[in-house]
Amino acid sequence: MGGKNSKSELEPPLLDKEWRDVPQGDKAEYLEFVRGFEPFQPCHDEKNEDQHIRILLHGVTGHGKSSFINSVDTVLRGRMAGRALADTDGRKTFTKKYTTYKITKGARGTFYPFVFNDIMGLEKNEGVLEEDIKLAMMGHVKDGYTFNPHATLPTDDPHYNTNPSLSDKVHVLVCVVSANKIHLMDDDAVKRMRTVRLAASDMGIPQMAILTNIDVACPEVKANLRNVYKSKYVKEKMEVLSESLGIPLNCIFPVKNYHSEIAPNDDLEMLILMALKQMLNQGEDFVNDCKCT
User: Fold this and answer.
1) Is the pLDDT of residue 85 over 60?
2) What's the distance, CA 255 to chain centroid?
3) b/e string for 243-261 if b means 16 or more Cβ within 10 A?
4) Which of 98, 113, 154, 177 sits at a 20 to 30 Å CA gap from 42?
5) Whole-model pTM over 0.85
């Protein structure tokens, strides 16, 4: 009004330097880490089961959980992947079943030593119940279970795992939030996500968050993904997410999922790989602690 510029118009959208110290290295180095990742050296002489890092993604419907799994699959396989079915509508949860995704490594029949679990979104009245997420974290939910928004998985259901092994349990809990939708999350959704996070804390499970759609939320990042840690807007959204859920800033990673691209993008993949490396490191620490106690 009156010809005056707003504060946002007066301030430049980018900082002079990156607000987060980003580890040095290129995409090849991160790929080498993931491809050479061999966790789980038992502390005691025991029969070592087929162990892997289990990463559970959770959050509000339409924020990019399935797309993140597909993006990791694409990065590691070197071609576009879409096994985790995603919906561009985003108004109702598209994932209905508890599904484990393995990623092929090299020759057919071999897989990376980590898996992703996709879960029904936290949609009000029609989404996954917090109690079912807790059961999944404890390893009680078998692959293929169709979630019931109105009733928790009963102990007499064929998909209830009575005696979960360490491999069945969740080792890293990752909350997925879209940068361009974080302002649309109501208090109920935030409360439910925080309830799940606190339950994970009680179980000793490490928690992370990924902020998706950073290119949609910030024009400067859309123009150049390397601006991500100079973007005031991305920094602000990460701080809001940290304050809302209680997740430390150093456990929140901004990413862009593959969406419209049909060819590899090194800058996109670097962000995906940085987040994945942190998930693997935290998961390995958790499992090793479990084996050594």
Assistant:
1) no
2) 10
3) ebbebeeebbbbbbbbbee
4) 98
5) yes
Location of structure tokens 């789980």? 40
Domain count, the chain: 1
- Look up tokens 């940068």; give the residue: 179
Does an H or E element contain 58, and which?
A: strand 53-58
33 alpha carbon, distance to own chain's centre: 19
Phi, psi of 229 (to 5 degrees): -90, 10
Q: Is beta strand 111-118 parallel, antiparallel or unpaired with respect to 99-104? A: antiparallel
- Per DSSP, the three-state class of 262 is coil
In a domain, 169, yes or no: yes
Within-domain flag for 24: no
**Residue 275 sits in a domain of what CATH number?**
3.40.50.300
Q: For residue 202, what are the domain limits? A: 50-225+234-291
Q: How far apart are alpha carbons 86 and 65 in whole angstroms?
A: 8
3-state secondary structure of 111: strand
Give the H or E element holding residue 112: strand 111-118
pLDDT per position as a tens digit, 58-81: 999 889 998 999 999 999 988 777
The tokens of 164 are what?
Answer: 């979960």
Q: Are 170 and 54 in contact, with CB atoms under 8 Å apart?
A: yes
Q: Are 98 and 215 in contact (CB under 8 A)?
A: no
Taking alpha carbons only, the member of 203, 190, 176 closest to residue 245 is: 190
The answer to whether 71 and 272 are in contact (CB under 8 A) is: yes
Q: Is residue 264 assigned to a domain? A: yes
Contact 135, 153 (CB under 8 A): yes
pLDDT in tens, 240-263: 999 999 999 999 999 999 987 878
